[in-house]
């Protein structure tokens, strides 16, 4: 204001502001704005714009507007201008040498035209993890054993899922603040593949329940028999994620069943924490079990009664869904048992892909875009591993 008279007659006016990075200069404006200029001269505005930027595609015969660019062109320009800096992403844990995560995430970064790199960091030393997290180029990480519960001391905040499951498998760095957030996507790795397989049966069961209420059927024994449920085998960290996933799908109380064949006390504690029930045996359960999620490290044979259930599954036009979280070996005894019965079986590799795409979403906000490409790359990687192991 003091020099307003002087600046009114100026030919050049310089406005200076200090930012930590070019990222800060283009991302910290509030409210978020779409700023675009047409034509070749306005292409730099498309590069710098961060909200709903219109794009073209190389397969289109022509751009829809003058100066429109493809995603690859925009990301290349952003790298050259320093808007997007290369970041390092890791898998922390041990043993991890056979993990498909580098294939999965590097495929995602490549598909999104991002300059980031995902690497294995095999260690059991939390201090090594801390040093990597504190690096300037750290972008995020996947976390496996033995660190999933130890990560709480390294994060600045955590998501409700991480708090509920009691474990962190994903670290994300906020590039504006530098803060580290812990998340858990393991439950999504179970929930996402499972939901479409059981949703029709859940809807049919809901309709049948409404019809029974309209008839005034108050038979408590019949209500228990007609109740649909999900069964979790095991009581470890992945079982916690499974219970949380099934909660989100609507299984609570007596419809969330836990069976731990080794130590019943651990099963009881898990069931109590997630509001379910723990049972001594899974043979001839009174509820209609729609799905079984096995988190056991060894093969487990399900009783015939779970596949038959006195015709109750047939009434729902449903076959028991079996989910075995192990991805080595690809064909487990449990999977073979399910397939012989004609039941759908979800394997551990499907869980890994689903939770990994969710991690990519955390890191880039565009994980769902690469879902199909990641599926293809990981399945090809897995097939190569199977062929190598059979030689």
Topology:
Elements: H1 4-8, H2 22-27, H3 43-48, H4 71-81, E1 88-93, H5 101-111, E2 117-122, H6 126-133, E3 138-143, E4 157-158, H7 160-165, E5 170-173, E6 180-183, H8 186-215, H9 220-226, E7 228-233, H10 237-248, E8 256-259, H11 264-273, E9 277-278, E10 288-294, H12 304-308, H13 312-315, E11 321-324, H14 333-340, E12 345-347, H15 348-364, H16 371-390
Parallel strand pairs: 1-2, 1-3, 4-6, 7-8, 7-10, 8-9, 10-11, 11-12
Antiparallel strand pairs: 3-5, 5-6
Give a brief description.
Helix content is 42%, strand content 14%.
What features would you describe in this structure?
The chain is built from 16 helices and twelve strands. Strand 8 (256-259), helix 11 and strand 9 (277-278) form a beta-alpha-beta unit. Helix 8 packs across helix 15 (348-364). It has helices spanning 4-8, 22-27, 43-48, 71-81, 101-111, 126-133, 160-165, 186-215, 220-226, 237-248, 264-273, 304-308, 312-315, 333-340, 348-364, 371-390; strands spanning 88-93, 117-122, 138-143, 157-158, 170-173, 180-183, 228-233, 256-259, 277-278, 288-294, 321-324, 345-347. The model has no long low-confidence stretch (mean pLDDT 86). By secondary structure, it is α/β, with parallel strands linked by helices. It has a six-stranded mixed beta sheet with strand order 2-1-3-5-6-4, sandwiched between helices. Strands 9-8-7-10-11-12 form a six-stranded parallel beta sheet, with helices on both faces.
């Amino acid at each position: 204001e003091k020099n307003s008279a002087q600046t009114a007659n100026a030919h050049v006016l310089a406005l200076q502001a200090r930012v930590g990075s070019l990222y800060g200069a283009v991302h910290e404006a509030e409210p978020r704005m779409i700023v675009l200029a047409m034509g070749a001269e306005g292409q730099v505005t498309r590069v710098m714009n961060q909200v709903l930027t219109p794009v073209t595609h190389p397969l289109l015969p022509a751009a829809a507007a003058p100066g429109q660019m493809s995603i690859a062109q925009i990301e290349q320009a952003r790298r050259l201008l320093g808007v997007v800096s290369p970041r390092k992403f890791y898998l922390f844990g041990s043993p991890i040498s056979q993990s498909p995560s580098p294939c999965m995430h590097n495929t995602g970064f490549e598909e999104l035209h991002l300059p980031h790199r995902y690497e294995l960091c095999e260690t059991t030393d939390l201090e090594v993890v801390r040093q990597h997290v504190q690096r300037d180029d750290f972008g995020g990480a996947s976390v496996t054993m033995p660190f999933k519960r130890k990560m709480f001391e390294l994060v600045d905040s955590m998501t409700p899922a991480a708090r509920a499951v009691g474990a962190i498998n994903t670290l994300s760095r906020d590039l504006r603040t530098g803060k580290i957030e812990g998340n858990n996507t393991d439950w999504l790795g179970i929930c996402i593949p499972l939901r479409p397989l059981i949703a029709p049966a859940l809807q049919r069961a809901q309709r049948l329940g409404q019809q029974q209420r309209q008839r005034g059927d108050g038979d408590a024994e019949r209500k228990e028999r007609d109740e649909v449920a999900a069964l979790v085998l095991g009581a470890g960290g992945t079982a916690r994620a499974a219970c949380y996933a099934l909660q989100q799908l609507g299984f609570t109380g007596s419809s969330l069943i836990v069976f731990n064949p080794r130590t019943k006390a651990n099963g009881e504690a898990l069931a109590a924490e997630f509001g379910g029930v723990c049972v001594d045996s899974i043979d001839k359960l009174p509820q209609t079990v729609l799905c079984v999620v096995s988190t056991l490290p060894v093969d487990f044979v399900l009783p015939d009664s779970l596949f038959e259930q006195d015709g109750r599954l047939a009434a729902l036009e449903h076959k028991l869904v079996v989910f075995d979280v192990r991805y080595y070996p690809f064909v487990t005894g449990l999977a073979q048992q399910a397939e012989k019965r004609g039941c759908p079986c979800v394997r551990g590799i499907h869980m890994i892909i689903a939770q990994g795409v969710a991690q990519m979403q955390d890191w880039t906000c565009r994980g769902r875009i690469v879902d199909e490409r990641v599926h293809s790359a990981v399945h090809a990687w897995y097939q190569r591993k199977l062929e190598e192991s059979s030689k």
